[in-house]
Amino acid sequence: MQQPALPTLILQPLVEQTLREDLGRAGDLTSAAIIPANTTTELFMVARQAGVVAGLELARLAFQTLDPNARFEVLQPDGSAVQADTRLARIHGLAQALLSAERTALNFVCHLSGIATATADLVARVQPHACRITCTRKTTPLLRAIEKYAVRLGGGMNHRFGLDDAVLIKDNHIAIAGSLSAAVERARAGVGQLVKIQVEVDTLAQLDEALALGVDLVLLDNMDPAMLREAVQRCQGKALTEASGGITPDTIAAVAATGVDTIAVGWITHSAPILDVGLDVVS
Fold first, then answer.
1. pLDDT tens profile 69-127
2. Which of 87, 104, 202, 272 could bridge 62 with an S-S bond, Cβ 3.0-4.6 Å?
3. Active site residue 42
4. Which residue among the candidates 132, 138, 144, 234 is catalytic per the annotation?
């Protein structure tokens, strides 16, 4: 699933910081010692296994940051579903620079493609239910924008980007406020009318209280399918429903069958396996 590319303004600092970490104080000792400075080469970025492609723009920036004249030709754009041994991109430029940028480029593409692939798998598993897969704020520090981009490429949707774009009242908020009603009332008074208010509940009694307060969404946490189904019935026409808590590829279809509107899965950003992608010299 193709998505609008993220702005270079967001991506370039990530790439530069990552290259700076890898090059250290003395640069790429291996490539500099072995390869003459003016040597050029051509490389293919290749998916070693089937999956969904993500992160090629970060790879392009990595190569072109070290060699501004490098050519980066996308063969399979972000969002493409590819089979093993598919060539994703062709790169031509100074050999020293391309090899120095190789690991940074591959780290981004492997990680983001893994997220997109895991998301696409979950999206397929909840068909034909009218349910969407969403990620959470459980992201790698400083990589949230690109990880959430990868989720969208896999057919998922994004939950909050940060603490500043929606209200989600959780158990600790309620405990400190003294009650759910106090927490909701304070939240409603403290934000504008365009900000949605969601409450996390783990019992049907809490759900009924939240619905009586007129919240916009409810996060149904760690409920089994039977309780989820009952919760969804109680929410009809009153609030949107989201299921979360320990959901795996093996259990997600049963959760979707309860009728929830969305399913929140934290591990697709913080623990998705990478997609194996390599860089091969064109022979």
1. 999 999 999 999 999 999 999 999 999 999 999 999 999 999 999 999 999 999 999 99
2. 104
3. no
4. 138
d(CA 59, CA 43) in angstroms, rounded, equals 13
Q: Among the options 170, 196, 234, 238, which is catalytic? A: 170
Q: One of 67, 147, 221, 242 is an active-site residue; which one?
A: 221
Q: Give dist(CA 94, CA 221) in Å, integer.
A: 52
How far apart are the C-alpha atoms of 166 and 140, rounded to whole Å? 20
Q: Is 234 a catalytic residue?
A: no
Amino acid at 39: T
The reply to whether 200 belongs to the active site is yes
Structure tokens at 274: 């990478």
Our CA dihedral for 195, 5, 131, 217, rounded to 10 degrees, sits at -10
DSSP 75-99: SS-TT-EE-TTEEEEEEEEEHHHHH
8 A C-beta contact, residue 99 and residue 29? no
Structure tokens at 113: 């493609």
Instruction: Clarify whether 103 is annotated catalytic.
Output: yes
Number of alpha carbons in the 13 Å side-chain half-sphere of residue 181: 4
Q: Give the total residue count for the chain.
A: 283
Collapsing DSSP states into helix, strand and coil, what is residue 13?
helix
Is 121 in the active site?
no
Q: For the whole prediction, is pTM greater than 0.90?
A: yes
Amino acid identity for residue 142 in this structure? L
Full DSSP string of 121-160? HHHHHTTTSS-EEE--S---TT-HHHHHHHHHHTT-B---
Q: Are 55 and 32 in contact (CB under 8 A)?
A: no
**In whole angstroms, what is the distance from residue 119 CA to residue 267 CA?**
10
What is the model's pLDDT at position 1? 73
HSE-CB of 84 using CA atoms within 13 angstroms: 3
Of the residues 90, 103, 144, 229, which is catalytic?
103
